[in-house]
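> tool_call: predict_assembly(chains=two)
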Amino acid sequence: MAIVKAVNTPARAAPISETSLVGWLRKNLFSSAINTVLTLFMAFIVYLIVSGVVVWGYLDATFVAENRRECFDNSLTGACWAGVIDWFDNIFYGRYPREEIWRINFGGLLLALWMAPLWITRVHGKILVGASVVALYPFLAGYLFSGGDKGLFVQVMVAGAILAFVINMANVVAGLVRNQSLDRLVIDLLGQANAPDKTQRNILLGLLAAGFAAAFLWQASWTVVGVSWTKWGGLFLTLVISGIGIASSLPGGIALALGRRSKLPVIRVLSTGFIEVFRSVPLITVLFMATTMFPLFMPEGFVLNKLVQVIIAVVLFNACYMAETVRAGLQAIPKGQFEGAHTIGLGYWGTMGLIIMPQALKHMIPNIVGSFIGLLKNSTLVSIIGLFDILLMLRSISRDVPWLGLHKEPLIFGAILFFIICFAMSKYSRHLEVTLSAGNKH
Amino acid sequence: MTDTTNQKAKVRVRPKEEFNFFQDQRVRSVFYQVVTAGIVGWLAWYLISNTATNLELRGMNTGFGFINSSAGFDTDFKLIEYTPGVGTYGRIFMIGALNTLLVSFLAIILSTVLGFFVGVMRLSPNWLVAKVALAFVEIFRNVPLLIQIVFWYIGVFSLLPVVKKSIDLSLGAERVILNNRGLYMATPVPGDLFWMTLVALAVAIGGVVYFRRRAHAKQEKSGVQTKTLLPSIAAIVLLPGAVFLATGMPLEWDVPVLAGFNYTGGTSVPPAFLALLVALSIYHAAAIAESVRAGILSVNRGQTDAAMSIGLKPDRVMGLVIIPQAMPAIVPPMISNWMDTVKNSSLAIAIGYSDIVSLFMQTALNQAGYAVEMVGMTMAFYMFISLTISFFLNIYNKRVQLVER
């Protein structure tokens, strides 16, 4: 007679040697004699470095002082952070007039608000949000930062940007409250849900035109004081250069990548040549080319300022790197997608715009974030040709009379700042990689 | 009957075959290409003609004649003979190119060794070792290279002791001396009969290679292992050593000696070189470590298990089973890293090491003008290096692919 149990015997708990802290230590740190020695040696090195850094950078450091002498009076062996703290405004905003700094902060806030909807699941029309950031925000921010009199073109673009921003915010509310896109909500509220498409479209266009008129009239009522680009600097300038760089290198890179994969030999050869030339030389030579040769390229009497030269160089350079990122993304798309698109009768642009690019871009987002990190790090090179970006600002501290010779602390501060930004972004891109690839596994 | 159906079919098909000029693919492709070529050509012509006008207006010199004219400035670090006022701009170009190649070559070797080491550390079963390697990679990867270079230069190598208080790295032998003026090393000067020692060394290496091949063949055949390591080392050390002693030690050292305010003699490198070398090596080691790690992880876990199950020790598993299989995944990103090293060595300009950019594209350009030619030559140099490296990379990739499939 067999005894049959109806329930499974519960699994025995893992032995204490596996689960306890001691077990973990034994397994991961002291599994063998060699490992023990290695662990102790490493722990010693880590202790030396960490204690050194903490003592120098915090315990013995001076945070409040008038000048370097006071730092030395306080402690000879500690860091002198007072110099860095004293220069905070310069490090972040350059020589931007102090009473106008709110414009930079406000511009940053606008950008954050503008892009925030991209991370809110319930918001509709994210592609439009993204496109408006790239196409309209730069004009608004550009005017906000540089100021002065508005030309007609700037007035139109600023009005458009303001309108886009207001619509964007209203769209967020519509998405959060009703889980609808804004246009649907407006139509519903007006009771036109059953009206023909054409009527609906006309209503929306009318509202848009009215909104634009209002925005145009409103923006005409104010101006901000002009600030020359020579006063821009610090982290702000670094972010402007890399922001413009990434925003315009993406479309440029897509165009070059499509050109490189084109079936038309002339276009393919030109794109490939362009990409390979810029990818095989260092950025600094491109920057030098921009500052020494662009003035020669321009027609007589036409002067580009240095900032524009640098931005053109950065954009050209990064577009070529972006092109390779895009190309890798395109190559990851199976051939069946192209064939499927052709079968339903789509032409080249239809295939690319509706079928291939949306899929490829999704694959590419982590790599694009990676290029942005690279671009941000590379943008410090503009300090070599004399733009007062964050690195040159940091290096200027040691030439300021009260802080003469203060080299190390500013550089370490800059390194920490870059580390935080780049590390956070690379973590985020890894997270994106995981979430995006999770959606692809069927 | 069949005839008429055919004719009807033909009639029905006909309108589709009608030649529509703008819908024809060949016409459109030619049209697009002509338009593109036209725009690019016009742009090129526009820029060139503007440049020509501007050069003329500013009275700037053009042409490559400057290469043979003498340059009036000196440089602190050069691998070939050069006298200011006599040496030409062509010579300056060569000095800069060699300096770039020297620092890149050394940085590539150091970063590859360090990168492999850290990459393997990243996968260590020892938690602390793995985390230390991770911290190393993340810290040095996420801080801009330029900041690191400037930091090593200003924060480390410029703060070294002054000449009078130099650090002796050779522990009292005064062969390797480090101070804030740079690193001074004794240089061996071979005497008359030194070639015999070299010949002995070559013979010893040849013998060892032959011996190891034999041992390997024997192992393949019979399974009997011969100890090769100790005899090999003995042969390589003893034979040339004996010849060296027998010929009366024909090797002298050109030792750096303190003369006045600085050391003279031996070989010396400036602090900028050291800072650039260290920063490049560490920065790229972090990148190489990541590709090594990814390459190792790409090898199937079962390979490790199988190798362990036939009784190989962990280090043999790594060396004989995992690394050889990981190489095809490691090498391409590693070589692209080497290319980046060469390109990034141009950041030398920030700390004044005389590489091709700072020497030729900045100093020489400021002295002589010729912006277009000099920028073009420098870019051509980098393109040549990149193309050469990617040429070899392609050969490697083809070989690896053939082996695999």
